[in-house]
Amino acid sequence: MANIYTKLVAHTLFPLHERLMQRPTFDYLDELEKSQWLSRTEVEQLQMLKLKRLLQSAEQHSPWHAEHIRSAGLEPLSSMPLTLEALRSLPTMTKQDATRNIEQLVWRDIPSGAYKYNTGGSSGQPLIFYYGRLRQASDAAGRLRARRWWGVEVGDREVYLWGAPVELNKTGRIKTLRDRLLNQLVMNAFDMSTANMNVYIEAIQGFQPKCIYGYASSLALLAAHAADRGIKLNLPSLKVVCTTGEPLYPHQRKLIEEIFGVPAANEFGSRDIGFTAHESPDGQTLLMSESIILEILDKQGNPVAPGESGEAVMTGLCSFAQPFIRYRTGDVVRYSSDTCKTGRGLHVIGEVMGRTTDFVVRSDGTIMHALAVIYVLRATDGIDEFKFIQHGIRDVEILVVRNPDWSEQSHDKTVSGIQARLGNDVRIEIRFVDSIPPELSGKYRYVVSHVPLQSGLENALRESPPAIQPEKI
């Protein structure tokens, strides 16, 4: 019966859902299944063809980009063969550029519509932007292809350990019903109390998924909770645990793999650029090369030498509604000189050195992923950058680099939003600063908590977790 329903989801329910949403997800998936086997040279030629279409659209519908295209001498685009060198004649684009010039960037009349969204703000710089249905389809199709690398097919059961609002409204209930119809079980990463983590473990055991997907630190936390209780899940159908949202550190990978009994594979991406890369069963992180051009630049804006790390500057080849062209992501990455071990022409990323975040803790002991507070700050007008510091269980400080949109309403919204997450008895101090400095280590952490986790759960954060002797349940 389960196999019959999986086929119903794969061949009927999921494709129907995407068509109703006007997303060409399955058409794009078919393209990706073929294009990944092109040679590297052919993949890069495909990138240039897509880049030309993107620039032509941006020139016509995005005045901010049109001005830069003309200034770079890239006209007429219709007769000009594009190269990576020609792309580099355009200036890079910052988050501030995207925020402050949004009306000169967005194509509101794009077929199927332009939809407002905002970033998770894990960089400390929230961003409101618009995306179209092709960008959504690119993200979904890219993940579906990556799942297939691991033996997970469309319609197979998946568990999501993901963020959720404080209160589940009507839209949230509809999404929950949709998730279950599509063979997806969603658990709240923003409410990881001891009792809830026990429920999550039992739910995963009962659901018997083929894939588990969630924030890297939240999955490590759940694994640490299980390890502390001597539990190893018995999941014979499970193929892979896919982590996202932050780097997956070696100690977290080891812990997750020991508890869930399958490999862990990390995903790299962002809300503004979209699904970017995914780890393959050969241990390589493969770029979504058909949808993204990735440049790696030094502090002066020049390409780094082969094998060196630098800032990831990306061009989203499917971002027609609001083009992200040579967009500075703030992430530090390194290309690998390797080619895909199974013969794909996709580019290989050697390392992703993202920013780090902490968990935050409510006074009742509930553990929340950092995005629980980031979601509040990203939705507040007037914030260019922020840093959230939890000094104690009821003592919070927020550093804010404000812009002219900041108001008393912004202050009140921030305080009420954080208290809705952490409790009305939490004291919140908002302090305005000119910039957010890095930690002494040089890393940027935009959510920092000095509240210790419960005994045994520090394994999710500690570099060298102790050996465990789990038992199956």
The Cα radius of gyration reads 22 Å
> How many structural units, i.e. domains?
2
Shape: globular
What is the H level of CATH, i.e. the homologous superfamily of the largest domain? ANL, N-terminal domain
Look at the structure and give the CATH class of the largest domain.
Alpha Beta
In CATH, the architecture of the largest domain is 3-Layer(aba) Sandwich
Q: How many strand units?
A: 21
Fraction of residues in helix: 25-40%
Strands of the widest sheet, in order across it, are 4-3-5-7-8-9-10-14-13-12-11
Low-pLDDT residue intervals, each spanning 5 or more residues: 464-473
Straight-line distance between termini: 24 Å
Number of helices: 13
The description of the largest β-sheet is: 11 strands, mixed
What name is given to the CATH topology of the largest domain? Rossmann fold
The overall average pLDDT, rounded, is 88
Strand fraction: 15-25%
